[in-house]
Known about the structure:
- The structure holds two protein chains of two kinds.
- By secondary structure, chain A is α/β, with parallel strands linked by helices.
- Chain A has helices at residues 57-65, 104-118, 125-141, 157-169, 187-204, 215-221, 255-272, and strands at residues 17-24, 34-41, 46-50, 72-77, 80-81, 89-92, 175-179, 207-211, 224-229, 234-240.
- In chain B, α3 packs parallel to α6 (126-150).
- The radius of gyration of chain B is 23 Å and the shape is flat.
- By secondary structure, chain B is an all-alpha fold.
Amino acid sequence: xxxxxxxxxxxxxxxxxxxxxxxxxxxxxxxxxxxxxxxxxxxxxxxxxxxxxxxxxxxxxxxxxxxxxxxxxxxxxxxxxxxxxxxxxxxxxxxxxxxxxxxxxxxxxxxxxxxxxxxxxxxxxxxxxxxxxxxxxxxxxxxxxxxxxxxxxxxxxxxxxxxxxxxxxxxxxxxxxxxxxxxxxxxxxxxxxxxxxxxxxxxxxxxxxxxxxxxxxxxxxxxxxxxxxxxxxxxxxxxxxxxxxxxxxxxxxxxxxxxxxxxxxxxxxxxxxxxxxx
Amino acid sequence: xxxxxxxxxxxxxxxxxxxxxxxxxxxxxxxxxxxxxxxxxxxxxxxxxxxxxxxxxxxxxxxxxxxxxxxxxxxxxxxxxxxxxxxxxxxxxxxxxxxxxxxxxxxxxxxxxxxxxxxxxxxxxxxxxxxxxxxxxxxxxxxxxxxxxxxxxxxxxxxxxxxxxxxxxxxxxxxxxxxxxxxxxxxxxxxxxxxxxxxxxxxxxxxxxxxxxxxxxxxxxxxxxxxxxxxxxxxxxxxxxxxxxxxxxxxxxxxxxx
Lengths: 278, 258
């Protein structure tokens, strides 16, 4: 059974996304971008990928999304090979990447329009109403209730990122891939969005894969933190975050929280390969 | 009374500036024209009389419509060819590179020099004028189109791919709207050039149109009539430009200022 809402203890169920010995080399003969990646992602969990810039974290997300194909190895999603536009996927990029000519509502509706046509359905009236309902639900999930008619250039960075989240969540999204979604925000907005993301996750039961270079963020949000190293991009180790959901801000003061943060930090430092900072 | 007048002026003076400017211009023109014979610089009163005559006998309207029709037909023809081609070339840089020397070459020939040839080939009628007009309108629309389609954000293209968008969806939902501002810039240039093209075509050989009117009036030293034709041409150009600007405003509500 997929674990809905809690995001922990998911290991009992079968992996939703599976990467087996995945290697990606853009040009043959050079150091591969990613090498020997083995990773299983379980339904309903929040998993973070942390690592130095250039270690291939974002590339890994693109492999899972299906727009890149591994040179070697296999990536399966729901037991099928990952292909572009696989159903149930939502993607949130760093710079929100909203279409400036669409209102908030129309931006959120975009994936439904694309999927609707891809499924070969004519957009009948029933479909239109269905779409409207789904968009409204996604807007509510992202706390965008009354901003639907605005254009992106009227919104703050935090609001844009909420729209990007709503766009990723709309419809029957089961997996969210987040590519440093909060990196460009100020601390206060970032913390706010952390809490909102956790709330969204508990309400939808979505599986979340988060790429971040913010260790604190990774520990606060995730059930597992996967630490990556560079040259070639590879998985060094993972840290299980044994903190209960729902996560609360006061947990940050917990000694256990601090211990987990420094554990991740030490793993990252090991990836540097020499002694400074230890 | 005076206070009220001042309040009125303070409130609406921006709207009064344009008619005021026109008034000053016409006044100065009348003044300067007094020093010259009418066949060199006719005053506004003479030009106005000639304008009234030509409007009354319907001749101006006829020439105006001819040139307007040639310009629009040329603009539409040039645009309909240029826009699809610009998308194709933006997607195939290799083909673009092969064609660039010819595109630049044809563009480098002054249209005034090319127009007589086109009149020989396509005759004295409307078609040669439409062709000249279309030819000059074609290039800015083409180059702006290529630039516009190329400016699509690669990160957005990737996002569309992640969502599983098909080629057609990528075009209509991403590439076309993101190219629109630059395309509209090209259309504005194109429509203004289309009018120039039509007049050049008429100069090269024709029996009607505002360009022909200028030519005919010059032949009979009817300088006031030249002015009438010039005013009509200016109005035509401005009218077209406003039309495109309005189209642009209507097409892109997200770019409107609050």
